[in-house]
Amino acid sequence: MAIWTKIITLFRGAAHEAGTAVVDANAMRILDQEVRDAQNALLRSRDDLAKIMAQRKIANDKLNDKKAKQAEYSNYIREALARDNRALAQEVATKLATIEADIATEGKIIGDFDASIAKLQTSARQAETVITRLKQQIDTVKATESVQRAQAALAAQHAGTGAKLGTALDSLERIKQRQTERAAQLEVAEELGRATGEDADLQRRLAQAGIVPGEASAESILARFETPAPRTIGHDGMPQLSQPGIASKSS
Amino acid sequence: MNTPWTTESLYEALRSDTSVDLEGIELSLIGGVDAIVNITMHEHGDLAMHMAVSGEQIFVSSPLCLASQVKDRAAFNEACLRLNPVNPLSNLGLQHVGGEDLYIVFGELSSRSPLPAVVEEIHALADNTIQAAEAFADHLK
Fold first, then answer.
1. What is the per-residue pLDDT across A3-13, written as a single tens digit (0 to 9) for each?
2. Which 34-73 residues of chain B touch chain A by CB within 8 A?
3. Which one of A71, A97, A145, B54 is at 20 to 30 Å from B141 when CA atoms are compared?
4. Which of A11, A12, A134, A139 to substitute to test the interface with B, most B CBs within 10 Å?
5. Are residues A182 and A158 in the same domain?
6. CB A139 to CB B54 under 8 A?
7. pLDDT for residue A17
């Protein structure tokens, strides 16, 4: 498509001017013009098509008239011959000859019209395709341009700060960093978990040793009932708790 | 979906339609004569993508890298051209942005596309961009 060449030429021109919008207004003007031209061509060929179809209809009506006449005159000839009026039959036959010649001519004309109609319909379809493609092209250029303008605006925001326009490379860097951070967090969590685990183990052993209060076991409770030992002042204190330790040793 | 989207209607639909999953996707509309949607992909290292609708097309673009970040432009261009046909749903391209050449990964779809297709395009484009950046690591400074 010639349109591609035009756009590429425009790109080449624009690329040298720093900061210019991608495809400048020229491209849009050219594309708009192309669409208008194609639409005009389409309208013209549709007009032509309508005219030719009208002409074909007139020719066809004429042909039908002539065919009716042909049938009529044929009947006359048959009738005249049946009545042995050869002279009259001859006269009608002369007229019929002209009519049949006309029928042949009209038939040819209609054939020509049909060929033209087919050709115009094809070119109208082609024009429609061209217009659709051009419109798509325009849509693409417009959408691309909007996005590009937005990216240029972003780039301009960064320009003052000395930072570069953010790309996938920065994102990739960020992803990697986040992964590292996440890995580090997991490690810390794991370590914490292990530490808590160790702590819990120590606590359990301390409780078992009766140094810190632990969960009251069934045995310790039972022991409390079995030995009605004189209660110490600190009723929840050490003496009572030292018993499970002893009990567990004896059992 | 017979009415084509506009940038604004697509943005509104993405914001209000609860059936679409926009987890990790932040959207903002930048108005103006030609509005665009800014997309920040939080699960893709805050990748900044842009989306605009024009007539029959939705254009979604994602910045891959600046030309100034490329070691050998000719080799990189060839690598891009070779990757392009095997890149699902997205294309690689070069644009002049803000006085610099910018390599982009972009996708186009019909402006009559259903909403889930648009969301899929956004996800696919982000994935493809990050994967391309990873794949091209050797070519980049």
1. 666 666 655 55
2. 34-36, 38, 41, 44-48, 50-59, 61-66, 69
3. A145
4. A139
5. no
6. yes
7. 47
Q: How far is CA A173 from CA A163, A170, B82, B127, in A?
A: 15, 5, 24, 15
Q: What tens digit of pLDDT does each residue of A42-56 get?
A: 888 888 899 999 999
The reply to whether A153 and A52 lie within a common domain is yes
Given a cut of 80, whether residue A141 has pLDDT beyond it is no
- Enumerate residues 6+ apart whose C-beta is below 8 A from A232: A239, A240
The topology under which CATH files domain B7-139 is Yope Regulator; Chain: A, (3.30.1460)
Contact B98 A175 (CB under 8 A): no
- The CATH number for A42's domain is 1.10.287
**What's the domain range around A160?**
2-165
Same domain for A151 and A85?
yes
Q: Which helix (H) or strand (E) holds B83?
A: helix B73-83
Query: B140, A169: Cβ pair inside 8 Å?
Result: yes
The reply to whether A85 and A159 lie within a common domain is yes
A91 in the same domain as A13: yes
Region A14-38 average pLDDT: 65
- C-alpha distances (whole Å) from B102 to each of A92, A148, A165, A167, B65 are 87, 10, 9, 9, 6
